[in-house]
Amino acid sequence: MGNGFHVRKGVALASLVAALAAIVVIIALSVRIAQEKSRNAGTLPSTAEPTAFIPKEPWDHYRLPDTITPISYNVTFWPRLEPDDNDLYLFTGNCTVVFKCTRETDLILIHSIELNFTLLDGFHARLTGLNGPAPSLKKTWLEDRTEYLVVQLDGPLQVNSSYELFTEFAGELSLIQQGFYRSVYTEDGVEKVIAATQMQPTHARKAFPCFDEPALKAVFHVTLIHPQNTTALSNSITSGHVNITVDGQDLIRTSFGPTVIMSTYLLAFVVCDYGHIRTEPGRSVLIRVWASKTAIDKGKGNYALEKAPPILAFYEKYYNISYPLEKSDQIAIPGFGHGAMENWGLITYTEPALLQGLHESFYEEKEVVVAMVSHELAHMWFGNLVTLRWWNDLWLNEGFASYVSNLGSDHAEPTWELNDFIAPEEILHVMDEDASCFSHPLSVKEEEARTPHEIEFLFDSITYKKGAAVLRMLSHFVTEAVLTKGLQTYLKEFQYKNTVPKDLWKHLQMAVDEAGISLPRPVEEIMNRWVLQMGFPLITIDTRTGNVTQKHYLSSLECVMDTPSEFNYSWFVPITWMKNGKEEPKYWLLTKEDTNTDMALGSSDWLVANINLTSFFRVNYDAENWERIINKLNSRHQDIPLINRAQIIDDAFNLAELGMVNMTLALRITSYLDKEVEYMPWRRADFYLKKFLDILLPRGIHGPLQAYFRKKVTPVFQYYKKLTRNWTERPTRPSDLYNQVTVINLACKVELKDCTQLATTWFREWMNNSPTNKIPPSLEKEVYCSAVAAGGTEEWDFIWSMYQKNVMSEQTSYSLMYALSCTRQPWLISRYLEYCLDPEQVPVNDIHHVITFLAHNPVSQPFLLYFLRTNWQDIVNKSFFSKESVIYIITSLMSTRLQLNQFLQFKEELKKQLSLGEEEFEVFNTVEANMKWIERYSKEVHDWLISETSEK
Ligand SMILES: *[C@@H]1O[C@H](CO)[C@@H](O)[C@H](O)[C@H]1NC(C)=O
Ligand SMILES: *[C@@H]1O[C@H](CO)[C@@H](O)[C@H](O)[C@H]1NC(C)=O
Ligand SMILES: *[C@@H]1O[C@H](CO)[C@@H](O)[C@H](O)[C@H]1NC(C)=O
Ligand SMILES: *[C@@H]1O[C@H](CO)[C@@H](O)[C@H](O)[C@H]1NC(C)=O
Ligand SMILES: *[C@@H]1O[C@H](CO)[C@@H](O)[C@H](O)[C@H]1NC(C)=O
Ligand SMILES: [Zn+2]
User: Fold this and answer.
1) Tally of helices (H runs) and strands (E runs) in the chain
2) Which of 68, 338, 415, 542 sits in a 20 to 30 Å window from 110, CA-based?
3) 139-168 pLDDT, tens per residue?
4) For the domain bounded by 388-531, which CATH number is listed?
5) Nearest CA to ligand 3 atom 6
């Protein structure tokens, strides 16, 4: 799966996340802990299981016994695209599964849930022997807890004999996107229904009874019965259509050729009234893009169709195995909540992940499409052809697809330099998560991933992003050529089979040995440290002595580490480094502490470790080296690689928050930014600087801080003004496109005159001539916000009227709600809050956005706190505002001790009203810690800022 939340700039998808991010930073730490606590609570088997349940019978266990191996399935489905008398959308179906008995048993367990069965001679199934008679059935029933159809037999099945189990069933095509489901969209004013599937990880059993484990691969023959004006698609190419009449309805029966041998979770079928475009006939693999006829007619699928063939060709070469199917369909599913799903031959995508031109034809949309198509096609080999035996190693499947998709994207759009900034940004992002004491190892134990709930939980960003990061590290220390070689022999040996990570390590080791690459430890031993224990090291290099140490990096001082690790939180760390801008031989740190005399420097030398962020660690230096890095940044920052400039900023602020370096040191690193124009360093600086601004807002220090940032951002603002010919053109490099947004954003936030003027001018033009809006979509959020902040009632009312018209895209609607929250007029804030209580004004679905946005505006904070206090019962009942979000918003409002004390006064009241437990308030300890931190640093920072800004 390509989880939607892992896509950068998922346009509409991610805009909410982005909006939230602005707030998240204020209390990133506290909220993260709160969230992960509640998440972790969910994974504990003790809460997933009824208390003290002791499995006794075979059907009490979540894993299938090893008595039966499926060989093939013949499945027929008839989805009803119109509701029945009870307003239900149903499907009916039948399934014949042929299986072989591999160990004697008188019991058949087959997964099934949410299905109703037709009883056949009083049983849920019929059994036939293919090599002689089958034992008769004794008893059949549905075991809902473990999601089985249980078939007890009168006598045993014979080892090595084959049998056929036939079932007939009905289910609901619900709107929940699991198993066989429906999705609804409107075209030309007509509501249309499409039936589609999502089987990963454990939903195939909701569509038909099957042995639903990834290692139980089989061949599937799919048949679909569907209305005459619809198309049916499945993994394989269509093998025949027949017109049939059932109960007076004219229908088509479409059958599909047998699939290759594959796992149940990769099965897919769709019935829709779509249009499509396809590659030229005559190519070896047919590639099609499917979407609503309107979308296809408007050319929205063209870009995906243009890029899928070169990406597929790239992988055929990369993996050195031809794509094994005749076709590859890419289909857009309206409202698909999973990002995209790599069903073999029929990949499903959420619309923004496949189509383009949904809003404006802006570049970010294409980037999402390329990334998603690359990710899903990468799975066709790694994941589909060779499959991990069990879900506990999901990280290898998803991490690999994520890592390789960067190569695929880069191949499809070489001029975009995507590889140079996407991977590093994701690495810094996931480090932040993995630094929490509630993180988890990439690979969990097989026993910890048994229930559907536990399996679902594995699809998180550690799995995707850290997985990709450690594989990127691996590719650097064995070299990309060796990685590719090992991968190719691995795929060849295990095609159509299942593996465990050890199998991949073995093949990589063979490739390493063959290439004569010397590693200090075998590949498997090195990788186990990164895969089997959570977190990552902080490397500290003392350039006075060459002393190098490692220590588990944790982002909170309060964190109590109670998860033991068999490796004692020590890693085998490949450290690349440069001295005075020249790369030195790679150094392996294999113990907690070591000395590398090459790293002992002369008094004018400088050292930077982890070149281009190829390894997964943070790094700290002795004070002298930090000083020399600062000097280098200020004299010739280009001597330090771009990615490292971003990393240096990121590391310094992180270490400062932990008190490991001075806060002024981190700030002094940003002093070179008046010479920096690149995206990566600005992006990191922007993140921390805004956090500073927000935390320090209600304090006297805020003024000097703003003045400092204004000074730093002015040159780069002017740079983009020139590059875009006074904001009339768009930059061509993607990283410039992003950076322009970052820079305008920050410049307007710190009230750089040129920026507020620009925003106001654009905004005025739009107000005076409202059908045409020249503000680029990627800038609209901050531009509207700045204009509203700088303006008064007129600007606010204009945005409000645009919001009320509600004709905009979802993204624009967020931008408008956000902009409304930026006003500095108290009475407008109060009115906006009042509107939240009136569904005629602010729809219920939008309330939580409005409140979340308002929380970031310092002027609105007292009003909001009062408003929440008076109305929270209402807000929680009426909207999608969860109790957790209330706490979240409230903590985000806390930046002074006075506010905290005020809040504590009515904490009891809140606890009672929302029936919250004391543990929900644990985040306040962190808020207190943050405040202590501010108190500790604000004088030092203040003095430094004054000295910086008053020097001229
Ligand atoms: C499954 O379908 C295929 C193709 O129609 C057919 O050849 C085969 O005999 C069927 N198998 C069973 C067990 O019905
Ligand atoms: C399965 O259902 C289809 C459609 O109703 C029917 O044509 C077919 O005969 C059924 N298969 C069996 C083995 O009964
Ligand atoms: C399954 O059976 C239950 C109980 O009779 C019924 O309420 C439900 O609607 C049925 N579902 C389907 C999909 O037929
Ligand atoms: C099925 O019916 C449609 C319209 O009723 C007709 O156009 C089509 O040719 C028929 N197909 C076959 C294979 O008979
Ligand atoms: C197919 O045609 C029927 C009858 O004309 C119509 O009611 C239905 O909405 C159509 N279905 C689709 C998916 O277009
Ligand atoms: Zn994936």
Assistant:
1) 32, 29
2) 338
3) 999 999 999 999 999 999 999 999 999 999
4) 1.10.390.10
5) 116
